């Protein structure tokens, strides 16, 4: 049925009258008399009238009919000003949504009242990075770390991400600090170093290895392995050598080679030996054997033979034989000879006789 122009004009007049009164349900029914829906402009006008009258809840019912973002912003601001944050939150969730400015305002209003539980939900509706950063910083200051952790994932700046990660690390939770440090475009080297140190102090080998990967490394360096051994010895109330023996299986061959060489340079041969068995390369074994022999003293020579039995090269065994007989250490020389797979050749026997005479 076609609506006459006269009827349309009459319906429009009635709609305008109801709008001026701020009556959303009546306005909607009036529009139906003309077999039409309310326009966005009419709904917005209805919302504005309700706001002016201070009847915000009626304004919300009007906005639910399909108001524009502009009208939703106006109503949300009115609720925020009134302090009715719950209704403001309901308002900004309407279909047209709210502007970033209004969302930011509501977030800050909730934070001001220290109502942190809903902040993350509101931020997800489209808050600015500045407000996200502000929210995380407030959560840090107020001790709301878990909420801060949820918020930081929404797009906080790297500086703020690092700040939250540092807090978790400082409080003795390096695992969470590591997870947060992976967010953003890349944690600062200062933070990563701080994280690595914290992981080491906690004696967490695998977590330390994960942390060093943030620096682009696949393995721990010698100083880090050594520091972990010391931390683990304190944690387990055992000596460094016992800790090395207990935990060496948790280190990679490359890490073991590195720390053994480190211990050799420091002449810490006992702990170097504990790290070396079965896991060190032949090159590292040879290096340790020669270092012990060159240093001398019975305890070091004993270590040299223990290590040599793990798989020293023939060249290193030859070095032992010549060194001991040249120094007149016959017993050590003979023990070194027994390391040879095929014993001595005739030429070597003559050569050995000469060394003995010279000694």
Plain-language structure description:
With 359 residues, this protein is mainly α. It has 23 helices and no strands. The model has no long low-confidence stretch (mean pLDDT 90).
Under CATH, the topology of the domain at 1-98 can be stated as Serine Threonine Protein Phosphatase 5, Tetratricopeptide repeat
Q: What is the total tally of β strands?
A: 0
Largest sheet: none
Give the radius of gyration: 39 Å
Mean pLDDT across every amino acid position = 90
Helical amount: over 70%
Write down the CATH class of the domain at 1-98.
Mainly Alpha
| CATH 2nd-level architecture of the domain at 1-98 | Alpha Horseshoe
Oligomer: single chain
Structural class: mainly alpha
Spatial gap, N to C terminus: 127 Å
Runs in which pLDDT lies below 50 for 5 or more consecutive residues are none
* Apparent shape: rod-shaped
Strand content: under 5%
Count of helix runs:
23
- Order of helical and strand elements: HHHHHHHHHHHHHHHHHHHHHHH
């Amino acid at each position: 049925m076609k609506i006459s122009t006269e009827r349309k004009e009459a319906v429009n007049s009635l709609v305008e009258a109801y709008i001026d009164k701020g009556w959303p349900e009546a306005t909607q029914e009036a529009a139906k008399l003309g077999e039409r829906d309310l326009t966005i402009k009419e709904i917005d006008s209805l919302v504005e009238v309700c706001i002016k009258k201070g009847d915000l809840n009626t304004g919300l019912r009007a906005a639910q009919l399909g108001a524009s973002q502009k009208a939703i912003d106006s109503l949300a601001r009115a609720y925020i000003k009134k302090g009715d944050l719950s209704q403001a939150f309901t308002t900004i969730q309407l279909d047209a949504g709210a502007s970033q400015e209004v969302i930011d305002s509501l977030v800050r209003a909730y934070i001001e009242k220290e109502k942190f539980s809903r902040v993350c939900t509101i931020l997800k509706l489209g808050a600015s990075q500045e407000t996200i950063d502000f929210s995380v910083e407030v959560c840090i200051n107020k001790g709301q770390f878990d909420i801060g952790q949820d918020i930081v994932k929404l797009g906080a700046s790297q500086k703020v991400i690092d700040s939250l990660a540092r807090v978790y690390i400082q409080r003795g939770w390096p695992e969470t600090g590591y997870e947060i440090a992976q967010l953003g475009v890349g944690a600062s080297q200062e933070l990563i170093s701080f994280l690595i140190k914290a992981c080491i102090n906690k004696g967490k080998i695998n977590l330390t290895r994960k942390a060093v990967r943030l620096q682009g490394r696949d393995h721990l360096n010698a100083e880090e392995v050594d520091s972990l051994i010391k931390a683990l010895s304190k944690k387990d109330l055992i000596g460094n050598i016992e800790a090395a023996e207990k935990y060496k299986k948790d280190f990679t061959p490359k890490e073991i080679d590195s720390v053994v060489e480190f211990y050799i340079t420091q002449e810490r041969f006992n702990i170097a030996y504990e790290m070396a068995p079965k896991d060190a390369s032949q090159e590292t074994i040879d290096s340790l054997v020669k270092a012990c022999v060159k240093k001398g003293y019975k305890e070091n020579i004993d270590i040299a033979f223990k290590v040599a039995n793990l798989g020293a090269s023939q060249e290193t065994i030859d070095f032992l034989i010549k060194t001991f007989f040249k120094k007149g250490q016959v017993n050590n020389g003979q023990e070194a000879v027994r390391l040879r797979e095929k014993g001595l050749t005739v030429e070597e026997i003559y050569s050995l006789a000469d060394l003995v005479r010279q000694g």
